[in-house]
Write a structure and sequence with these properties.
Layout lengths: L1 E10 L2 E11 L3 E6 L6 H9 L6 E6 L2 E2 L4 H6 L1 E4 L11 H11 L4 H14 L15 H13 L5 E5 L7 H16 L3 E6 L2 H7 L2 E6 L2 E6 L1 H5 L6 E8 L2 H10 L3 E5 L3 E6 L2 H13 L4 E8 L3 H9 L6
Parallel strand pairs: 3-8, 3-9, 6-7, 7-8
Antiparallel strand pairs: 1-2, 1-4, 4-5, 9-10, 11-13, 11-14, 12-13
Helix pairs in contact: 3-4, 3-5, 5-6
Length: 308
């Protein structure tokens, strides 16, 4: 449903998106994961036709975005990071406006609007103005405006930024429902836990480049079956590095207050790790053992933590 090949976007000498390629399937959630400023929103803008790529091609639902823009956009539903709702129109009228913009009318439009109001949990506030809503309610309405016309492809650009936990879970449920209907969902986020919860396939982007892609299982395989041990406390980095090297572990991050390492059979080797680190004079306040996650993968690939 989405095919991106060699996408590049330049702003003068600034390379915002650099030779990005990926594809996304119907009935799946494709996650584009990366920190703010990584190139996610620029990629979404090229997909939606808001920006013209400097190079490369973008095809949605079989139509080239730059060549068959009208047909391509007809298949798209877009939920932008910035709210795209009218504060002086009720929720019902916001949905009616966007539905009509995509060709819905009459009884069909009215029925669809009522259905979406129920799905986003705003039926009881349908005639209120969004300026009377909480931030989470506005986000849900923003989401509803993107799916009122039942698009085949849904582009979600950081859809949960600044929302409360309850609204976030509601939005997650909406994403899962769209996937179950066969919609192709492209989901951008810098929240690791969101990508792990929702996405079937992933691409990690940083500084405009995709640095890793695949399923979560495939990306975790980058660690070769190793586990992650995270310690917090007080450490002497040079002494700790020597101990970790002797344990055949790899340091992912190390400071005077935190240590993250990866090694095989973490549960079995944890006592030896704690004993060795303590012998350096370190004070260990907290210990966490886990399998590799996207945050640790990002750290391993880039040598730095995911920046917000």
């Amino acid at each position: 449903m989405i095919e991106v090949k060699g996408l590049q976007k330049l702003y003068g000498d600034l390379v915002a998106v650099d030779q990005v390629s990926f594809s996304a399937r119907p009935g799946s959630v494709f996650g584009l994961l990366g920190p703010n400023g990584a190139g996610k929103s620029t990629t979404i803008s090229c997909l939606s036709g808001l920006l013209r790529p400097t190079a490369g091609s973008v095809t949605v639902a079989g139509f080239e975005v730059t060549g068959d823009a009208v047909k391509a956009k007809a298949s798209l539903g877009i939920v932008p990071q910035e709210l795209a709702i009218y504060e002086d129109l009720s929720a019902r009228h916001n949905l009616s406006y966007w539905g009509a913009a995509y060709g819905l009318k009459g009884a069909g439009l009215k029925q669809r609007v009522e259905h979406v109001l129920n799905r986003i949990g705003l039926s009881d506030r349908a005639d209120d103005l969004p300026k009377q809503y909480s931030g989470g309610m506005k986000r849900r309405l923003n989401f509803g405006c993107g799916l009122v016309h039942e698009p085949k492809i849904l582009l979600l650009d950081e859809p949960t930024v600044g929302v409360d936990p309850q609204s976030r879970e509601h939005l997650f449920d909406l994403v899962r429902e769209e996937k179950a209907k066969g919609t192709c969902v492209l989901y951008t986020t810098h929240y690791m836990e969101e990508a792990e919860k929702l996405c079937d396939d992933l691409a990690i982007i940083d500084h405009g480049k995709i640095i890793a892609s695949g399923t979560l299982k495939e990306l975790r395989a980058e660690f070769g079956g190793n586990d992650i041990i995270q310690l917090s406390g007080s450490f002497n980095p040079s002494k700790v590095e020597a101990v970790v090297a002797g344990l055949e572990a790899e340091v992912l991050s190390l400071s005077t207050e935190t240590l993250m390492i990866t090694l095989r059979d973490g549960a079995r080797n944890l006592p030896a790790v704690l004993q060795g680190i303590s012998a350096t004079g370190a004070e260990i306040h907290d210990t966490r053992l886990s399998e590799p996650n996207l945050e640790s993968l990002f750290l391993k690939l880039t040598g730095k933590e995911l920046r917000a």
